């Protein structure tokens, strides 16, 4: 994070200088991804009309303005306050264009999912281990990510074979001075491993080389998509507590007009509130208790609907999970001392990944139309939708 802040500071100093000199820069007519007069161009993004689009590292905002003119709803994010000021000054009231000054990861974690995310050379300035988990869930299932990344610098140094930042010289536009920065300059295989490890699929990698024979600079353009179906991550095979013959738990479904409530477990999965049923508890009582313990929401057992029972096996352990729909509650989700935090309401057509398997099974038992992949489990619905 310190490395990223240092780079943002350089761009902020550059932006302050440009605010003073006020250069007359033309609008973008020919789109490029890092090297002028090279292909591919804007066609890599496809038809953007009507799409919700995010520009990561938007700078002056000329790329974002071009897409807004084509009918996209564009949010342009930059961490530099002066670059943000330049953009807002240049485009004070452009229809379909909104500028945000924020850390990219913070914005991605809070924003509703986008149809398309793109970045012209901005991604390598961010730690992929910090960026990609947030980025993967900020793209709607079926949506796309398109970004360019440095592959070989002008001195001929090729990409690194380890996921670590390295020193590079940044020559800012309209200047002759080099600024030392750190960037993640990775091989295409490393980028693909990172992207697929976060549930994304790489469709195409295109080489973009400098046309001058004495210039070794080369970039790679990555065209990536998020699959339509949401994956899940297996649960533990740890045996149930000694008092239980089988592992029995509840998954609590809290639905609002904006989607369902999910929290991120410390191991990275997104999960419904829920947990084990204590001795003597009904499923409804367990759901109410777990909801309060994990998310600080208050509900009553008579405001729940026990949907049925899910039965599967993990190794030698039989697991029973009971999805419980809560129809009325009070309070706002709060992080507790439990293992789950970062509570957020997610749209049903843009659920985060990976989902915890029992949560995925509960959600598809509740709504079989949801595009979620998970191991099969036998589901016995309660025909009277009563409490148990």
UniProtKB/TrEMBL annotation:
GO process terms (BP): methylation
Superkingdom in the source lineage: Bacteria
Cofactor(s) recorded in Swiss-Prot or TrEMBL: Mg(2+)
Statement: the UniProt record of this protein carries the keyword Phosphoprotein: no
Keywords of the record: Hydrolase, Methyltransferase, Transferase
Alphabetized GO MF terms: methyltransferase activity
Record flagged with keyword Nucleotide-binding: no
Pfam families recorded: Methyltransf_25, NUDIX
Domain Nudix hydrolase, first and last residues per copy: 241-369
Family (UniProt): Belongs to the Nudix hydrolase family.
Name of the molecule in the record: 8-oxo-dGTP pyrophosphatase MutT (NUDIX family)/2-polyprenyl-3-methyl-5-hydroxy-6-metoxy-1, 4-benzoquinol methylase
Species this chain originates from: Streptomyces avidinii
């Amino acid at each position: 994070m310190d490395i990223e802040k240092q780079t943002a500071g350089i761009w902020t100093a550059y932006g302050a200088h440009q605010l003073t000199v006020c250069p007359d820069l033309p609008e973008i007519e020919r789109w490029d991804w890092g090297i002028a007069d090279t292909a591919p161009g804007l066609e890599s993004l496809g038809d953007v009309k009507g799409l919700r689009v995010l520009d990561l590292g938007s700078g002056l905002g000329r790329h974002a303005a071009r897409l807004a003119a084509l009918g996209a709803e564009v949010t342009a994010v930059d961490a530099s306050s002066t670059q943000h000021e330049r953009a807002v000054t240049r485009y004070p009231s452009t229809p379909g264009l909104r500028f945000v000054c924020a850390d990219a990861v913070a914005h991605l974690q809070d924003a509703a999912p986008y149809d398309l995310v793109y970045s012209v050379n901005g991604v390598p300035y961010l730690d992929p281990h910090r960026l990609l988990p947030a980025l993967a869930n900020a793209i709607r299932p079926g949506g796309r990510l398109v970004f360019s990344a440095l592959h070989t610098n002008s001195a001929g140094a090729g990409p690194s074979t380890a996921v670590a930042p390295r020193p590079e010289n940044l020559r800012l536009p309209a200047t002759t001075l080099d600024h030392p920065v750190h960037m993640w300059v990775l091989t295409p295989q490393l980028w693909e491993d990172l992207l697929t490890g976060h549930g994304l699929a790489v469709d195409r990698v295109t080489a973009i080389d400098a046309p001058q024979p004495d210039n070794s600079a080369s970039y790679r353009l990555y065209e990536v998509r998020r699959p339509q179906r949401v994956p899940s991550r297996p649960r533990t095979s740890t045996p149930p507590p000694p008092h239980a013959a089988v592992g029995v738990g509840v998954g609590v479904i809290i639905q609002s007009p904006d989607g369902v409530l999910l929290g991120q477990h410390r191991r990275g999965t997104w999960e419904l509130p829920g947990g084990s049923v204590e001795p003597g508890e009904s499923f409804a009582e367990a759901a109410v208790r777990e909801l309060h313990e994990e998310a600080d929401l208050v509900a009553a057992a008579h405001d729940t609907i026990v949907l049925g029972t899910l039965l599967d096996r993990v190794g030698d352990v039989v697991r029973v999970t009971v999805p419980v729909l809560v129809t009325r509650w009070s309070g706002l989700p709060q992080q507790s001392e439990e293992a789950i935090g970062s509570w957020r309401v997610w749209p049903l057509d843009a659920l985060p990944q990976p989902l915890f398997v029992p949560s995925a099974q509960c959600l598809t038992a509740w709504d079989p139309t949801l595009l979620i992949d998970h191991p099969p489990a036998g589901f016995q619905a309660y025909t009277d939708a009563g409490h148990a």
